[in-house]
């Protein structure tokens, strides 16, 4: 099934692996012109596909980095019809151990750069007639689980999507959040648990009524739907993609 996105110009921050990588794959199959950035240079080089996409190694937490990349992408693609904020992460332990710097870094790696990305992209989306922005948050934004700084940053992303949908909607721009549940990405956290702690992993799957974690492609389908005109009536929403997962992690307090 096609989402009718052929020719659209889309920027994906955090587009090298996992959910971001799956989103880029789907956008390319749709016939989109894609710009992506990621932190690791080797992953960016692999994602560049011999020039099929415009790709840069960018640490989105560095001041002006995501803004500069946005302008480069606009110049290369000739404008923007959509943006996806898919980078993210967290640092620090519990409330007694996490430092002020770790709280700040976690906020910037999720909410802060997302705000700067939309600020840099807003005028270009407006020039294209509005477009769509998707912030990839997490069920950790409303389902309690360690660590608090990560959940707080994701909750802020969800709130920001609703607020910016009102602010930017006057120009025809839609803004939505997507909240994945625990996603099985090769080589990442849950994949490592599956191979190294199979009994614990099997117990964790009971958090899902269907007995299996989310796949990156399942989240990517929802992101691409929100970028398309088929979701034209949806803005300011937070859409969970968690298969009714109960808790974000298997680790209690």
Can you walk me through this structure?
Residues 8-193 form the Ketoreductase domain. GO terms for molecular function: oxidoreductase activity, acting on the CH-OH group of donors, NAD or NADP as acceptor. This protein is of the alpha/beta class and 253 residues long. The chain has helices spanning 18-30, 41-47, 65-77, 100-127, 148-169, 189-196, 198-204, 216-227; strands spanning 9-13, 33-38, 54-57, 82-85, 132-136, 174-180, 238-241. A 7-stranded parallel beta sheet has the order 3-2-1-4-5-6-7, sandwiched between helices. The protein has one domain (9-181, 222-240): NAD(P)-binding Rossmann-like Domain (Rossmann fold, 3-Layer(aba) Sandwich). The mean pLDDT is 94. The protein has 8 helices and 7 strands. It starts with 8 loop residues before the first strand and ends in a 12-residue tail after the last strand.
């Amino acid at each position: 099934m096609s989402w009718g996105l052929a020719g659209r110009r889309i920027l994906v921050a955090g587009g090298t692996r996992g959910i971001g990588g799956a989103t880029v794959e789907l956008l390319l199959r749709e016939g989109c012109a894609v710009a992506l950035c990621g932190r690791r240079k080797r992953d960016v080089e692999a994602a560049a596909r011999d020039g099929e996409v415009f790709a840069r190694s960018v640490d989105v937490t560095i001041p002006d980095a995501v803004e500069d990349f946005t302008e480069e992408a606009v110049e290369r693609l000739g404008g923007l019809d959509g943006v996806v904020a898919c980078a993210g992460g967290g640092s620090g332990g519990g409330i007694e151990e996490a430092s002020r710097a770790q709280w700040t870094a976690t906020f910037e790696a999720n909410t802060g750069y997302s705000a700067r990305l939309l600020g840099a992209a807003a005028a270009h989306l407006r020039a294209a007639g509005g477009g769509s922005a998707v912030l990839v948050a997490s069920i950790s934004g409303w389902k309690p689980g360690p660590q608090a700084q990560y959940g707080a940053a994701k909750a802020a992303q969800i709130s920001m999507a609703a607020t910016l949908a009102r602010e930017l909607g006057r120009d025809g721009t839609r803004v939505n959040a997507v909240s994945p549940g625990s996603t099985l990405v090769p080589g990442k956290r849950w994949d490592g648990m599956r191979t190294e702690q199979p009994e614990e992993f099997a117990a964790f799957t009971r958090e899902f009524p269907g007995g299996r974690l989310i796949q990156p492609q399942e989240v990517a389908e929802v992101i691409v739907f929100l970028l398309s005109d088929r979701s034209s009536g949806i803005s300011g929403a937070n859409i969970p993609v968690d298969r009714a997962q109960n808790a974000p992690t298997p680790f209690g307090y």
